[in-house]
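Q: Convert this sequence to structure tokens.
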Amino acid sequence: MSADPVLAEARATTNRVARTFSIACRLLPRDVRDDVYRLYLVFRSLDDLVDEGDPDAAARVEAVAAWAAGAAATPTREVVVLDDLAARHPLPRTALADFCAGMRADLAGARHETEEDLDRYCYRVAGTVGLTMAALLGARGPEAEAAATALGMAMQRTNVLRDIDEDGARGRVYLAAETVRAFGGSLEPGDREALVRDQIARADALYECGCAGIQLLPRGRRAITAAAHMYREILRQIEREGYGARAGRAVVAPRRKLAVAGRAALIG
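A:
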């Protein structure tokens, strides 16, 4: 067991709640893998606090926002981890500030009227994660940053499609309202095939952009390629299941997921 309790929690959290990402992490270079776990813990902790309506969520988000702004920050667990990581990696503080803006929007229960609104949200809560992870892996320059952003946004759009019913049961709708109306206004199973096809195409376009830029990563290309392909396979599973013809979350079978990861790692 690790002597570092935060690292031990970061590994355990990744293995428990992010199984796809956990598989990909095993392909990372050893000397950067633990820092990726630590960074993931920061993002996941804040996201979970917000999703669960924890009374401390807003304060924890604001502490990270203060850190990102270079101001005095309450030394929450997330701030302590970020301080430690920033001593070794040039973390993009603007991206972390934007992530906090996305968390504030979630706390406020913001809805998305247009696709541009949804893209902004996907950038804030996931494109920023891609940017920060890419920086930790040594990526530099606008082309690499644009690709990392696109890949994060693609994964978030995948989450939105996968979780339509789960989110709906909690009174949450992340899809753009104008797009839902354009495809008939219903999110019910059996009524949403055209809408789901449209949203899959949008996500796939982002994956194309994101995957094309993985070659620009100085490190971790195999891991990120595997993560991208495994996550994109969720879209293919949604297609196999009839584009939302039945209720529930599309789940890629573990054997298929590992096969996709193995093929992706060979080309990464």
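The chain has a mean pLDDT of 95.
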